[in-house]
Amino acid sequence: MNISLKNTLKMSIQSILSNKMRTFLTMLGIIIGVFSVIVMVSMGQGATASVTQSIEGMGSNLLNITLTDRTIRFSNDNLNELSMLEGVQLLSPNINWMAPVKYGLNNEEGTSVVGVNENYMAINGHTIKTGRLINPLDIENRNKVVLLGSEVSENLFGQFNPIDESISLSGIKYTVVGVLEEKESTLFGDNNNMVLIPYTTGMRQFRTNSVSSITVQGADAASIDKTQSDIESYLLTLYGTDSYRIFNQEQLLSTLNEITGVLTLLLGGIAGISLLVGGIGIMNIMLVTVSERTREIGVRKAIGARRSNILFQFLIESSVISGIGGIIGIILGILANSIISTAFEIPISASLQVIMIAFLFSLFVGVFFGMYPANKASKLKPVDALRYE
Amino acid sequence: MIRLDNVIKTYVMGEIELTVLKGISIDVREGDFYSIIGPSGSGKSTLMNILGCLDVPTSGEYYLDGKEISTYNENDLAKIRNEKIGFIFQKFNLLPRLDAFENVELPLIYRGVKSKRRKEETEIALDSVGLYDRMHHKPNELSGGQQQRVAIARALVGNPSVLLADEPTGNLDTKSGNEVLDILESLNKKGRTIIVITHDLEVADRSKTEITLRDGIIVNRKVK
User: Fold this and answer.
1) Nearest CB to B82: which of A15, A304, A307?
2) Which residue in A160, A385, B78, B197 could disulfide with A306, CB within 3.0 to 4.6 Å?
């Protein structure tokens, strides 16, 4: 004597359908819960992915050295010694100024002017659209030449060719020698709304007597930690104090990943609580259902239902409610994801893993919160249940 | 086939012990039409519950088809109720969401009968109570007499050893009550063992054996 799953399922669905409004409201708790888990976690993961992407855009074998003590002069000789260190492949000073840039009547206030050497573009992955790069002779002779970022070029010259035109930086005339290809911006700045000049020229014009920031490209990501400590010991012997900071992209990446990971977990956790509340809603309604159907349980037992038959009937009922609620929540969540990602132009989508976890969790909620009412129903004595009015 | 030996049933309510059945011994033979009468509070319903294996005696022995049931566990009792006993209740106790067919089919579902055979047997049972053409009506679309006939079909469908009817005409008007009794009588003529519990003497008059219960003991026994 064993009742098939198909028949139990049919019984459960019959009783679910017999009270559509109540079933829908109960389901709504699960729908909202699963929906928010999916959307929240997807948003968290989307944020993580875009942060990671923008950091990895900078290259994982780069080090940024910032010299914090302005009274100590970091000379060209020091730069040369630094470039001789094992593991240092390329380096470039990286000095930032702000200056108005003018061409004719067009004026760009507060443009970022970066003083660099001939290696800067290779290190940062810039490519040239037209014209030429800054070369070692420009550095040595302090030539007044400038490379335009794509946005500056667009704003000053529009569709015209800017090569060999003169622009003024803080009133000093520079000759445009090239325009950079458009490049995605990173965490450290806009790669398009800036101009590059030889650092030696810039240091003279802006009366800067020391290199304040250097970007170093190591041989590869694996040896970057070794290179970093070599540079640290060189700087320590030079200065005697730790008046410098070195940023490692890997460290930055793992720190940020940790932060966004915690954020995702937090968002998911908050959404998970709403799923839990939905589960309590199921338990509540199942308890009502059991007491409403006490007589039915009595009749079923009188005509031969076993305890396990009754238990499964009610357990399947709560699982079907939470399972269907979970599926609807997933569909709505995926829809919301695509709406959000088109509206805000951030790439968010629910991974299969998140969808599976959300669905299994909703099923688990149904079983877990359905267990107590179902057990209560199955334990009813047939005599008492039949007498119930 | 049904034998009770000095059955006692005591309920404990808090500190009060209430003995409802004080040593009942009966013997129902196969093909009998047995009626148990008595005023309310005499212990009829308790006796019915014990006979139907819905409850177990506090002491005494109950033999059903030669087997003592006190050794059975909950699942065994469920199996016995499913296979050997057909219940007919005063308030019909049909499941309101299911139609007549589904109500009658239910005992066979719990027995694990395949759906094709289930359909055949359910239709035969409904036909035998004259409700073949009403099989897809819900209980609230049927009259009281029709509902009780559906309940009889449900009791019959599993081909049980005994039909247990608890005040089967109690909620019916005289005409439908008589129809139900006619059905029970004709079933008995075909050899079905029937036990009816009632306080209606007209119902008892139709039975073959009649016992009267008062305050938990049998005060009268009449074999016609």
Assistant:
1) A304
2) B78
**What percent of chain A is modeled with pLDDT above 90?**
38
**Looking at the predicted structure, is the pLDDT value of residue A186 above 70?**
no
CB A14 to CB B97 under 8 A? yes
Q: What is the pTM of this model?
A: 0.74
Using a CB-CB cut-off of 8 Å, the residues of chain B touching A306 are 74-75, 78-79, 110
pLDDT of residue A187: 57
* ipTM of this complex prediction, to 2 decimal places: 0.93
Query: Coil, helix or strand for A344?
Result: helix
Chain B residues closer than 8 Å to A303 by CB: 81-82, 87, 106-107, 110, 154
Q: Is B173 exposed, middle or buried (0-12, 13-18, 19+ CB in 10 A)?
A: exposed
For residue A225, what are its two tokens?
Answer: 């930690």
* Closest by CA position to A115, among listed A42, A54, A204, A199: A199
Cβ-Cβ contacts under 8 Å, A382 against chain B: 54-55, 81
- All structural domains of chain A with their residue ranges: 5-54+255-387, 69-242
C-alpha B95 chain-centroid distance: 17
Q: Using alpha carbons only, how large is chain A's radius of gyration in Å?
A: 34
- pLDDT tens string A321-362: 999 999 999 999 999 999 988 888 777 888 888 899 989 989
Residue A387, CA distances (Å) to A296, A299, A363, B93, B198 in order: 11, 10, 34, 11, 17
Please say whether the beta carbons of A336 and A307 come within 8 A: no
Measuring CA to CA, which residue among A164, A122, A119 is closest to residue A144? A164
